[in-house]
Amino acid sequence: MSRYVSYRDFDWLLIIFVLMLCGLGVMEIRSATVHTKFAGAHIKQLYWIGGGLIGMFLISLLNYQALLDKVHWMYIVAVASLMSVMIFGQKYLGARRWIKMPGGQHFQPSEWVKLILILAVAKYFADLHHRELSWSDFIKAGAMVGVPMLMVLAQPDLGTALTYIPIAIMGLFLGGVRAKQALAVLLLAGLVMPLAWHKLKPYQKDRLISFMEPEADKQGSGYQVIQSKIAVGSGGIWGGTGTQTHLSYLPVPQTDFIFAAFAEEHGFVGALGVLLLYFIVLMRLTQNAQTAPDRAGTFVVMGVVAVLSFHILVNVGMVVGFMPVTGIPLPLMSYGGSSVLFMFLALGMVMNVRMRRFVN
Amino acid sequence: MFGRDEKVSSIRLTAVQYIILVIFMILAYGLWRLQVMQSDFYAQLAEKNRIRNVPILAPRGKILDREGRTIVDNYPSFSALLLRDSSRDLNADADVIAQGLHLDAREVRERIRKFMSMPQYQPIFLKDDITPDELAFVEAHKNELPELDTIMAHRRLYPRNGFMAHLVGYVGEVTETMLNQPQFEFYNPGDVVGVSGVEKQYNQVLMGQNGSRRALVDSRGKEVGRLDETPAVPGKQLKLTVDVDLQIAAEEALEGKNGAIVAIDPRNGEILAMVSRPTFDPNDFAVRISRDEWSKLVNDDEHPLLNKAIQAQLAPGSTFKIIMSTAGLQEGIAQDMHVTCNGGASFYGRYFKCWVVAQHRTHGVVGISKAIYQSCDVFFYTLAEKLGIDRIAKYATAFGLGQKTGVDLPQEVSGVMPSEEWKIRNFKQKWYAGETISVGIGQGAVAATPIQLARAIGGIASDGVLHRPHVAFPTDLPPSIKPASAPEDEVHVPIDPQNWELITDAMTVVTSPEGTAGSAHLQGIDFGGKTGSAQTISNSLKAKLGNFGKANYKDNAWFVGVTPRRNPELVVCVLFEGGEHGQFAARVAAQVVKAYVEKQRRQPTKMAKDAGKVDVGAIWSAPDDDGDKNNGLQAGHFFLDVPKKPLPLAAAAPGLQ
Q: Is the pTM of this model over 0.80?
């Protein structure tokens, strides 16, 4: 296999932009945590990035098509791991997301499952025989994503569960979903909404309410949204001294609100620059999808595009007040091992596809 | 055949790219809105977050008496609190802290638990008003117990035991209803303002203006830097017209009785003393008063919170006869009037008794002078019938009855002076001539406050010149405060000189053995006045209630006295609730007058300096009627046994000085 692939085909351009984003992230993490108890987080982030890069290289060595052939097993393992979290999982911060490993480390399966899901969805749609989806195909696709999603929801982890949805949507869209089917889903979503509202935990309800009306609970759930807007707004065009971040008014600036911290310090110019970088990354990824050797490859890359776009939309949307507060991190910039590793492994898959684009 | 090599629809891929572009443009717009369009708004909010205004509290002005002695002051009050943003285990230290602050350890733990849900920068208040040794405890343990801290606030210190409580008043936090009123526009929640008495009336003078200090804070509320500072403007001190020495004498005189005393200088309206009993301790209000204690005070039948000197409107009884006399003489009726008092008389089909019947005698033939010093009811019933209610009302209102005196204290009541017009206006009924009879002796619909009577009778004795009573010197006040008494406030009611002399001379006979207050005689002092004994319920009702009526509805005793008799320097009005006989009120007034005169003649000063005996030379003084046993004659030399003079109550403070 490696005869046909060379590292010249590695998407160096993509890596450069990705590393730029990572670098800005590390800088901002350092700035946001320098006088707090999280100081030194940026060093840890560098380790994660390093590890991620290694992982990316390793994955790109494999043949994705061979991986896709084995995807059924991987899917079963994924579902099994989610099941084991439900049964053996440790409750931490009110959610059962982690399993304690013998070595004492914590293992959060929901991120791995995301990766496997991208592959599974890709394989499924790639193998379809029709240009348009039949109802049974449609439902099967829904189930394939829906089952793990519900399991994650039960943990409960609404945020991560929601990130499975773009994978499904992308797959359906590219796989030839029919207008009628799309409408059916929307209708179903509409009917389920009131039921879903009841099932939401109080803090989640609070977050939605604060989204509508941040002033209603200034000190409680509205606080994060308001502080985020203040931080971003006070950055102006060229950026400020980052008082809100440094005086701890902006909550969790190194993770969920890293974009707000960055926008405060670097202003509209800086924030727009970051958005531009992300946009370039996404366009580059799409280009890789277009040059993929087969449908499966395209689906894989677009699956990654879907997840990445979703994260950016929800996180930046939350920071500027267009979206309710969720726990969804900003990929490549937010501090956090799972997020960083997931991104680099996903990028590894993309590299994988790209490197084999001339192979047939 | 559609297979795995078939490419994904390029249209759809392009569509995805455009969708992503749209999403990013929406996000960029969001940024634009916050950072370009509304950036000033958010920059301001960012400032507000991190800059905090800490008020610098202005100390409230002191209240002094006319000689500059401090009556009300502030004292520094320390509160102990527990800081929470340290890493200390508060529960572990709870026992030590409780011991040092004399608290119950369980209570301390309970508080810590209750505060768990509050933001960490809010400290836990453990105890207000800590004593010096508790303060020392906190200071000494600064290293072992860094979470323990103190905060200082100024508290108002009032004299103990309710001394001058009604006149001075007390302070409290401004309430929401008050804040809604226009005069409180510039006040903030948490401000301490006067709630009653002088504290309320002169709040603007006493209050001062808080300053502020701008500090840089982090999100936990911790101060991390200091910006600028506006200093506080302290409140001005207020000098009252009250004389503490006379006030002490008045408070002692009324001890154990309910009622009120007002002592005024009729030449200018300055109030020298004002007492109301029962009293309350305003220091209880300085720290927050419990709801139960407050209800108890408010619902107490004897109304301790009421300043009876200006808020008790009661039938004045025979003291009203002075006004009647003035009216009668000015109208030319009373001069030559002679009435035979056989213990009562009939008017309009009703028999009206004269009080003298209770002593199993009659007054016989009385003229105006004897009617005054023997307080003959029959004479004044007759006079009332001849004058008619409207002429009585004309003189009474000229002397201020039925209206507020305008004293510079809050919530004065106006009393009642009936007339034909008054009856129609308030009861839509005609005034019956029969009702005038009881008014003649100060009963019936007439109601007056002690301060009104003091002003009226003091004015009559001052040749008809009346002033507005006040407690603060008008010249001391800043220009923005309207003075309590202005030259326009002087009222002149014309009284013919002979009438004036007649009345004032008769008043002096009252305090001689021939008068109704002989037991209040003061040797060597020109002291006169009028007694009064006012029924609180009608005779028939009292009879119906039998012994209960006798025990609970005793007559009120009144006395208004002046010294000297004409153009007096002092007028004293005493209301002795349930005192029954005016002469008891007269004795109270005599005590006050004696204290005043003795101070004028500088006697107490000499006495206060020495303990034991004082050599006052060869002055002969016989024992007085009022039981002054200090005098003795020793071989031509005269020594006085000096009683131990009590400390002025105003200067003592708990644990300080």
A: no
